[in-house]
Amino acid sequence: MTKKERTSYVCQSCGYEALKWMGRCPECGQWSSMVEEIRKPFKRDTRSSTMSRPERIDAISLAPEMRLKTGLAEFDRVLGGGVVPGSVILIGGDPGIGKSTIILQVLDRLARQDFRSLYLSGEESAQQIKLRAERLGIDSEGLYVMTGTCIEDFFDRVAPLKPDLVAVDSIQTFYTDDIASTPGSVGQVREVASRLMAYAKGSGTPVFLVGHVTKDGAIAGPKVLEHLVDTVLYFEGDRGHAFRILRAAKNRYGSTNEIGVFEMKDSGLAEVDNPSRMFLEERPEDVPGSAVISCIEGTRPILVEIQALVSPSPLGMPRRTAIGVDQNRISLLVAVLGKRLGMELGDQDIFVNVAGGLKVDEPAADLGIVSAMMSSFLGRPISRDIVVFGEVGLAGEVRGVNQPEIRMREAKKLGFSHCFLSQTNLVGSKPPDGMKLSGMKSVKDLYEFLFE
User: Does the reported pTM lie above 0.85?
Assistant: First the structure.
């Protein structure tokens, strides 16, 4: 190591830097996360100004935003209408969830529109990518494949090609020669991402980055990686299920509330045009503990089935298990039923699941969760033509939610004829033809309407 080089210890979890090794990072508290890195002084060959001149805000012109339509409507919906030129999009998800598959499909769709696309892989060989492409039916002449892990080699070889889009799979496998540390370290990920962002902004070429995730579900690498990029997408779903959900956690060019629903098939990821029908197609008949709610994801109404199983617990401390909903919300609603309705569930094991793998975090699901738990506890099924939505407060009151008419129209399309909602939403609402509405003021009203 020369005199100009220096060594430091960097936490691979949060990026904290120290001059000596420590067993535990003082910033994030992670153990054995400090790794030695050798830093070289960075020299600029030429100084180029990237700073714009000061302008009055009323004199700045708004150029029309041009977006590239990928041809995958669900993907475009999550991005806010398409890919913005010069944007950097980070896609994260569990291993095997379908990140590389959807990137190949997006590049293929754009290559068919005469956009020159480049797929840069640091994990697979060109032959492996070709095998996946044949399985997906991808054979576009405008789709190029390049393998390697050095970012300097990439910039040298990409200049003659001049691609319209670039996908990097994955960002943790690439490194730069200017930093003497292993690929995937905090310094390497930060520097490689910064250079790719500068390339995207300077050339106007959209860049897709595929990122690994940690065991906690967060994208691996420093948090600055998510701050650098324009859009962060998460691919959610269980590999045991065929359905995948693409969700935006950050989007500088659109909403972060939209989701895209895909189904994994042998030929790749297929769009799901009607997610509500998909989530309800295997709903059991005349079984206690099943209720259908109408929730809003972005601008899209989706009907999902809430399943609850309430049974006496053989344990001293009953279990509370929730999949797809907040577990703390379940405990809150159990306490409301016990205090306001006299339905004591404290000695019962309670399991709540959102069928299909969707995660529901809006308060409108409260009424559906309460209905499913009461149905399972009493052993009495809910009629198949009933859909519910509404928020439940600590006083046992049922509160109104936004966009009730959109929720009702979606329920009517799928054959539901009776809607349970809050009294507040009932006033002034115009139900679809043939749909009956029942307003709830409290959970007591819900119990009387459903089971008496």
Answer: no
